Amino acid sequence: MVVLNKIYTKTGDAGETALGNGARVAKHSMRVTAYGTVDEVNATVGLARLHADGETDEALARIQNDLFDLGADLCRPDMEMDGEVEYPPLRMADSQVERLEAEIDDMNEALEPLRSFILPGGSALAAHLHLCRTVSRRSERLAVELATVESVNPAAVKYLNRLSDWFFVAGRMANDEGKSDVLWVPGANR
């Protein structure tokens, strides 16, 4: 259980923060940037939920919880030590990726195939979901970059990759099952 009695600690005043294993690193380190961007994705999902209801809101709530799991995963760099610690860290699981895939497939069945790229927008929910998509893509790029120099759970990267796809398809669903998608017209303003 997490207990936060005091919100500010002053331990980061010199530009460092603690990872999940207790190690102190610069706040601009690749790992902190990666899980900080996951937090940013979560905040955009919170905005999208202001416009969602029913099953979409429930799915977004699950994603928000997953994103906290993902942040917890990314803040623990010592994956090779997972089996040796008294309390193994929380890691993303393939089942979370598979759930996203199943939800994408279910939503996609209601959609006509795309014949053009679409512009972010349409309904308020769709616009917010496209923002979620772009921030999750950035988060994925940062996690992939981090994985080139430090250990990163492969399921975490897969989750981020599927998540942006989920937001894309959900955005189309939010636009009257794609009927109100805003289509890109190449060179329209030349």
> What general outline do the C-alpha atoms trace?
elongated
Q: Could you state the CATH homologous superfamily? A: Cobalamin adenosyltransferase-like
Range of strand content: 5-15%
The radius of gyration computed from the alpha-carbon positions, rounded to a whole number of angstroms, is 18 Å
List SSEs in N-to-C order.
EEHHHEHHE
**How far apart are the termini?**
58 Å
Count of helical stretches: 5
What would you say this structure looks like, in words?
With 190 residues, the protein is mostly helical. It has one domain (19-179): Cobalamin adenosyltransferase-like (Hypothetical Protein Ta1238, Chain: A, Up-down Bundle). The chain contains five helices and four strands; from the N terminus they run ββαααβααβ. It has helices at residues 30-49, 54-74, 94-108, 124-147, 154-174, and strands at 16-18, 24-26, 118-119, 182-183. Strands 1-2 form a two-stranded antiparallel sheet. Strands 3-4 form a two-stranded antiparallel sheet. A hairpin with a 5-residue loop joins strand 1 and strand 2 (24-26). Helix 1 (30-49) runs antiparallel to helix 2 and helix 1 (30-49) packs antiparallel against helix 4 (124-147). The protein starts with 15 loop residues before the first strand and ends in a 7-residue tail after the last strand. 32% of the residues are buried.
